[in-house]
Amino acid sequence: MQADQPAVEINSLTFKHNTLFTAPPEDYYEFPGLRDVNFSLPRGSVTLLIGGNGAGKSTLLYILAGKRMIQEGEVKAFGRDVFRSFADNVVYLGTEWAMRAGVRGDIVVSDFLDSVGGYRFKERRDRLLDILDINLDWHMHAISDGERRRVQLCMGLMGNWDILLLDEVTVDLDVLTRFSLLKFLKQEANERKATIIYATHIFEGHFIHFLEPSYSYPKLRN
Ligand SMILES: Nc1ncnc2c1ncn2[C@@H]1O[C@H](COP(=O)(O)OP(=O)(O)OP(=O)(O)O)[C@@H](O)[C@H]1O
């Protein structure tokens, strides 16, 4: 990997949804999704992808993850076409991913994380357990939705990713956990030059971590 090579590069990307409706009126439709998208992101950058519902954020992240084939253009991760080469250092975490990773059986968190390779990434796993305030003795079927989402995030983030595509994954986290997680992501970008794209339709104060590392909250006037 060359040091000056962009982590993400998109040239003249055009995408249409090809949808077959099986309910009346049955037909095959092409819906415009994204048109002539161009951008490149350097290694170590953190990017907020902001847009209203239906703007195309998830579509763009799916494409970057190589999960949707495009009709025109180029999409590259570290100089390689995302549709031609599988990159295990590109990780997508979104609501669809969370549903698939949503184990609700009676399994203890430590066993659950080990079953997906947690023992190989013990150091990062332990750091995330701390940040996300996860107890290894929890039983997956007996925790809240927010706690389960924290375990899922630990699972998704503990590996060796270099590009992270996050689709609204912090919406059901409590304020303190979200704060710590966003800080962790910014550190990952600063310290090991990981590249992060975070899609959201809610721009809120916590994202200030992403924009300005030295930001401190203003003091209230007396
Ligand atoms: N399979 C599909 N067939 C046709 N249109 C689709 C399909 N999937 C998504 N779309 C349309 O593409 C547009 C973009 O959807 P997308 O899920 O990327 O939006 P989003 O910006 O992530 O929205 P949200 O913030 O609500 O998650 C929407 O208008 C949606 O209706």
UniProtKB/TrEMBL annotation:
GO molecular function, a single term: ATP binding
Keyword Nucleotide-binding listed: yes
Pfam families noted in UniProt: ABC_tran
Location of the ABC transporter domain: 8-222
Keywords: ATP-binding, Nucleotide-binding
InterPro entries, per database record: AAA+_ATPase (IPR003593), ABC_transporter-like_ATP-bd (IPR003439), P-loop_NTPase (IPR027417)
Regions crossing the membrane: none
Keyword Nucleotide-binding: yes
SUPFAM superfamilies named in the record: P-loop containing nucleoside triphosphate hydrolases
Protein name per the record: ABC transporter domain-containing protein
